[in-house]
Structure of Aminoglycoside 3'-phosphotransferase:
Amino acid sequence: MTTTTREEACAAVPVPASLSGELAGYQWMRDHVGESGGEVYRLHGKPGAPDLFLKTGRDLSADDLANEMVRLRWLAGYLPVPDVRHFVGSPDDAWLLMTALPGKTACQVLQANPDAGLAVVDALAEFLRQLHAIPIGACPFNADHAYRLAHARMRIDAGLVEEDDFDEEREGWTAEQVWEAMNRLLPLSPDPVVTHGDFSLDNLLMLDGRVVGCIDVGRAGIADRYQDLAILWNCLGEFDALLQERLLARYGIACADQRRLQFHLLLDELF
């Protein structure tokens, strides 16, 4: 999605009473990137007040927002992430209100200045190393591939996988075909670290050449390091294969494990 279509102005939506006072006076923008089955709004233009992001979802999306809320609060002790202002949850829906991080997404930076690609990748690799250096003994969240496989199977059975959004090399595939191809790559020998879970260019904020934070952390937890590497590697391939090589080199991988790389690319198609 281009930077010109990622969001559009919209009317304020009805919110729980506990949020209405804080949201009064804001202008609303509907954000179309990273909605993950819910709705995302950027709130801006209130004199003397910071920009905010509001996420809302129902059913499984509500569960995802609860997961994101607890992970944001935990990750705040290690990395720059949005501050949770309010969380409202019920058996049917959830509302997560957060501060906005400064800067532009890494995707926006690359689109605006492709010549900065190597410097951007170097900054991303440094931030990824910082994330993966968080002690796994301090992380209370499991996100290994066994856990993710169970969740992926649930999404397939519930008809939640967007088959028309698969990567080009899997265009026309069904979710079941992705599932079968992925399982043919098992078993794996993972190298567990604390992962983001969706380490994409749209989820990393940059300012003055540095990564200043990450968003959409609802899948964060202990998993194979290729969980993050595969997603970022895939995103960079949309710009230049040389950036993919640079990522692996700057992260510290001399020879990529193609089996683990492909497994996590297939797994990501189901989310």
